Structures are given as structure tokens and as C-alpha cells.
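re: ur question from yesterday

yeah so i grabbed the chain u mentioned. its 359 aa long if i counted rite. heres the sequnce exactly as i have it in my notes:
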Amino acid sequence: MKVIHFGIHNKENKNSGDTLLFQTTRDLFDLHFNNIDWTLKNLWEPVDGETIDLINGEMDCILIGGGGLFLKDQKGAEESVSGWQWNCDTEAVRKIKKPIIIFGVGYNRFRNQEDFDPIFTENLKALAEGCIFFGLRNTGSIENIKRYIGEENPFFLQACPTTVLSKIYDRIQIENSEKILSFNLSYDRPKYRFGDREKEILEDLASFLRYAHENSDYNIHITLHKHIDGEILKYLPDNLTFELINLTESSANEIMEYYSKIDLAVGMRGHAQLIPFGLNKKMISIVSHNKMQYFLDDIKLNLGADVESSSFLDDLISKFNEVKDSASILNVLIQEQNRIWEATSSNFEYIRQKLSPKN
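ran it thru and got these C-alpha cells back, copy pasting raw so excuse formatting
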């Protein structure tokens, strides 16, 4: 089967979550289909006539995703003609004659961010017409996208492929080599994440790390998914002992190997939440973007502290004390991963049926 995959494949983006995500997406498809011949296309490059001819003439289907692609201001996609990250205008979408699969894509609009332009709705409606599978990564994304293109379109709940890493890569050893707390700050778009309380929130995060250092036997790692996440270093107390782990330019295997060795992840980036979960690690989410809460809602676990809460620091410390020595929470996380894996397998059976010649 010949599949063209639109994703963020270039290394210029330098975001460790994306580095792992798009490779994992293809590996997940390879598990469910034999002998896929992949063609990779950068999501942000314009879909021109040559690309349309390639799709219609040589491909069996196209794959878009995963990732939080429904975002209008992603650096690298500023010139997109669709209103979101896939740079394919509506006319070009309608020229595609091969089945389209949207897989594990999320609604990533930030809090207080301006709405999408009208072209977004027009483009998504055209895209939905050609989709055999429209899979969104959480219920929150489904409910938001429905507001643009209506209830009549069939949506599937398809979690991010990184949530099932331990199922895809069963060779990975997930035993902890030492007791590590991996902490991640996300510092992109601080005005949307923190509003006018940036300094206060970052000081609270530094206070949390000091508390964790003084009240547990964790080794503290400050883990960067992008270089800019190092902004937290400016706020850390001088007497805090920690190791700096910069995954910005790491390979997919290096990222998985790192997270396979930790015990607890406290993260603000989406993949600082999803990758540990996928590797059967305990995690606490720092909620500065609704997508973090969407995932927690789907797994029905109250493991987040919201930066907009007046008791944010107390909430974060409380979650830490609840989770740090809990074996039962890990069992619940593994049960939720098993449920996601079953749903994913069911989705692949549906995709297989839709791609079969009789359809």
C-alpha cells in the first residue's frame, strides 16, 4: 500500500514531541498494515498541482497527522492557505480523489486566542467530504470541531499515538533506573498561557520544585522539549540540585529511552504528558492549555493543576503528594492505556474495511 504522510518531518521544527510523534504514527500504521510504502511530505509546504497528481496517480490513500494541527499561528505555517497547519487550499482539497485519513489530530487553539478565519470552516468541510476516517485525539477536540463543521460529520476518538508507546515498541524497557522527577515548562506563546501572571506562575513552579526537592527522594530533572522551555531556569533557587535534560534535538529513540527511565513526569507541554503516559509512567499535568485537561477528562483522572486557579501552587503540591508514592495510580494509568489501545485497534479495523477494494 502506497501512503503519502503529511506531517512535520523536517528537523528544523526542533520540538521533541513532534520528533517522536510523526515517526510513531507511521510505526503504528506499519503494525496494522503490511508493507506500507511511505512518501513523506512536509505539512507546511503548499500542496500544488504536482502533489495532487502524485496523490491521484500513485497513492492508495493520504494520511494527515497526528498532532495539534488545528492551530492558526504555528511558526512554519504562517503562509498556510487553509486557516490551519496543513497548507492545502480548499480547491486543492476537492481535487484529491484518493481516501483521506485524519489520525489523532487535535484542536490546539489557545485560551483567549482569536478564533480561526472563515477559510478554516470552508476548508474543513471540504476535507471531511473526502475523509474515510476523521480521528480527533480527545473528546474536547471533537466537540470544538463540531462547532465549525456540524454534527453530521462522523468523528472518531483516536488518541495520540504516543499514548500507546509501550504497545508499539514492546522492546522498550520501562523499569526505572533511578527515582527521577522530570519537570517540563512550555514557554511558547506565554501571553496565552499565563496572561498577566507570568512571573507569579513561574515563581510558583520554582517553589513547587523546591518543595519536591526538600520533601521527597526524587532526583529533579528539568526537561526541555524546545530550547525556549529553559525560561524556567531563570526562576530556580540557587540551592536547587537538578540535572538539565535538553531533548530538543534528540532522536525519537533517545526521547523514548529518556522517558523510560523516569518515575514521574510533571509537564506543561502536551507530549510531556502523553509520552510518559504512553510509557507507563506516573504523570501530573500543568494545565495552561485546554488540551491538557481534555486528555485528563478522557482518561477520567484528576491529575492536573490549572495555572488559572487561585490555589495553583497548593493544587500542584497536593497532586504531587497524592501521586509520588502511589502504586495504584500507575495501575489505573495502565488500565486506561489498555482501553485506548483497544479503541485504536477497533479504529484500524474500520480503516482497513474502508480501504478494502469492495468499498
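noticed a couple things. The longest helix spans residues 328-355. also The longest strand covers residues 61-70.
anyway ttyl
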